[in-house]
Amino acid sequence: MRFVVGFSSLSSLSERPLILGIPAWSRDQKRNMAIYITGIMFYKLGLEIFNGSITTLATDRFQTAHTFTKLGAAQGLNQAAQCVGAILIAPLIKRWPTRTVLATSILLFSLMTTLLLIIDASTGGKMKYKTPEQKVHYGSWNPNAIFFIWTLSGVSYGMVELIRRVIPCDIVGGDVTKLRRMDATVHIFYEVTGTAAAIASSSLITEFGNNYSFFLTPVFYSIAGLIWFFVDIPRDNANTAGLGVEDLEKEVDRGNYIVQLFWGFINFGKSVWVGFLIIFSSRKFIWLFPGYAMALYLHRFVENSLAPAFAKRVLGTSAWSQIIVGGSNFGELLGALSVFLFADHVTTPIPWLRADAFALNIVWTLQYYSTIAGMNVGWAWKTGATYIPISFGWAAGDCSLAAYIQSVLSTGDYASKYTDVSALGAVMAFLYSSYITMNAILSSVLGTIIDDDFSDHGNIRSSLARVGGLQFSICSVIILIATFIPKGAFAFNPGAIEGVRNEQELWEEDSMASSIKSDVEGFKHRHKSEESGFAPSS
Fold first, then answer.
1. pLDDT at residue number 415
2. Which has fewest Cβ within 10 Å: 7, 443, 492, 528?
3. In order of start, what are the domains of the chain with their CATH numbers?
4. pTM for the complete prediction?
């Protein structure tokens, strides 16, 4: 009996797609994934080129005394606008196919990025290589217009990013294994493209100037939009659960977009509040605030504030910040790949978060580099290499945390406790809003410290130590302490935290139980047949 049960269990385990590492995607799912990933790669190319160009444009055009104060404020507005974009797009996803809304949104995004090119050209701006002195020649437009343009592009960006988080369910359905493997596959291609695009952006800025270096962005966005129109999503897979607000149709008139939009803002605020209550009312979740929101803020700050400041004030060339960001993107790629490869061995987010906490202290090297670095591109590459382990730790922690949050909140009591909002959506809304608030406020405030340091001393060595090394070390201690809060987290590599085990263990247990039940039923059937005189033939 034991032999039969064990053999049956092993046979069933060998058929599981996760064990083999090859999800059982259908032919249509593979086709749609290929189309979607191709579009994502073009989207990432355009996004990195635009972000690099507008960041260096702001760095060069804002007044020296307020450069990084304004840069931080502009980035904060951009990220706040992303939330608005997500709310604006939510009712549309409920009415039209996701692929149509996604493709249309990216085409709108391309128009927003074209706006700055038109403004610069119409006010006398020229490409760098066309000027006699081979220097950037800007138009006569007011640099503060960057705030307006960056905010508009943030609205479009938020639309696209929200849909990107919903459409995987439309493509492969609700199977968790398929979803996680698809997410990992998409993320790997996304970061490969991001690394190449960031480095290419530096070359484009050097060649054309940061006022025209993103001329390819509208082209790449348009190609991505056209590609996404060919995603063929089965009607049965249409899904809007990822929006975080459930049963919206019960509360609003589907024929009135304005009413839907109103309720969208109301429900977003409600989601943030519910997320706050969930996070800070339980030991199971309170550690997610430093582990997710704070870690995400630090990652954005090291890319969007420290990299441009180091490139501009230490290396003397703002375009080289994209080389540093390229190193960061490569670190993210390695982090996501590590989670993908070691998912069966590192089954909780805890080890990755601790690695992230220790890696944050590497930021101290920026202050040291500022004392010895020369104004040559080699130092940009060295600094980019320094960013690899920093972003590795963050990406690994982020990927594994997302899986943990989803596994805890998408099932059980939390999934049915709240009638108006999704518990999963509420927690993610609160964590993301917390990150945006921290980034919007601290990026501008700490940017002032960098500006004042440069005005007073002609360098930013002191500010790199304070807003870089000291800030990151304090946060690393907070994150490290937070990793010991959940139950069962004191082990070096916990097998489970808060009673939550990894998906493979749960599946194996369920598979074993099903095998035992099947074997017992078979035994009863044979025994009953033998008593009746009708024993089954061998």
1. 59
2. 492
3. 28-243 (1.20.1250.20), 266-504 (1.20.1250.20)
4. 0.80
